Amino acid sequence: MGLILKILIPLLGLLLAYYFYSAPEDFNEEMLRGKRVIVTGASTGIGEQMAYHLARMEAHLLLTARTEAKLQKVVKRCLELGAASARYVSGSMEDTKFPNVVVKEAENTWGGLDMLILNHIGYSYFNYFDGDVGHIRKILETNFLSYVAMTVSALPMLKESNGSIVVLSSMAGRIGSPFIAPYSSTKFALEGFFSSLRQEFIIEKVNVSITVCVLGYIDTENAMRAVSHVVRHKPAPKEECALEIIKSGALRQRELYYPRHTMGKMLLLHTIAPDFLDSLIRDNYKVENVKRP
Ligand SMILES: NC(=O)C1=CN([C@@H]2O[C@H](COP(=O)(O)OP(=O)(O)OC[C@H]3O[C@@H](n4cnc5c(N)ncnc54)[C@H](OP(=O)(O)O)[C@@H]3O)[C@@H](O)[C@H]2O)C=CC1
Ligand SMILES: CC(C)CCC[C@@H](C)[C@H]1CC[C@H]2[C@@H]3C(=O)C=C4C[C@@H](O)CC[C@]4(C)[C@H]3CC[C@]12C
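That is the input. Now the predicted structure with NDP docked in place:
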């Protein structure tokens, strides 16, 4: 009994202190008004939806992806929705020079930057790991190294504005799932890099926030095309997901878990019963529908 009291009471105290200390500031759409924001991978999916929310909130937008025709349409829609300004620069993040080109465009147009949203991903197969090391190298360039390169180029402007970096990660960047070994490696890499950098910012009193978004299955066209015949779980809506990402970035939160309850349960299980969680994840896949090429 004594031991329980000795442990329980301080634990309760800690939980209460955490609850009150971390009570979130309210989000207000005006937080984004007039802010200068780069969104990568903005031609479709969650990136496109983030662009529309930001446009409604009257932000200045610089969008990027490879497909110019799609970007033109998204920019047009953003202007209709009320963006303070909207432009695009097209190119591939496989090209090591491109991250800097995008950031320079922001510098030349705005002379500064408030928020950098790193969201793009390159194509990767959804299947058993095929032993192709070259593919891992390529996908690391697109999904990881270009995020690092954009951060390096944008940091002087972000320091100047006390700005924010928002990084799109995944449950697959925290917990192993089958059939996505190359993709998963890039997300684990992002988590390592940005959580280390956050520590350094705190030590050096750099007032640039880093928000890592840990997402579950979201109903974007590309994700559904890739996995809906295999994954049993129902995907969450991309529009709501995009809004939650913007809110967490504006509130300078360290992490976002979306959808919140699924992610919360999975991360708890990962800590206390990892083998059980792995088996739950496997049960969630119709493995018979994954055909080796
Ligand atoms: N959807 C999901 O279930 C989940 C998604 N996430 C994360 O959310 C983010 C967005 O995902 P989602 O919206 O589904 O992704 P999509 O596949 O819908 O969009 C990817 C974007 O990246 C762009 N892109 C692709 N290749 C390149 C390239 N080589 N260089 C530059 N841009 C490129 C695409 O445009 P274009 O082809 O024109 O270049 C597109 O705009 C990603 O970081 C993803 O990892 C995390 C967990 C789950
Ligand atoms: C156990 C269940 C409650 C939850 C399982 C959630 C699993 C199925 C979810 C969580 C993260 C999801 C992947 C992801 O992060 C991003 C992409 C990129 C896209 O282009 C193709 C689909 C893919 C690989 C998703 C596939 C489904 C994943 C593994």
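The pocket of NDP (ligand 1) is lined by residues 41-47, 65-67, 70, 92-94, 119-122, 142, 168, 170, 215, 217-218, 220, 222-223 (CB under 6 Å).
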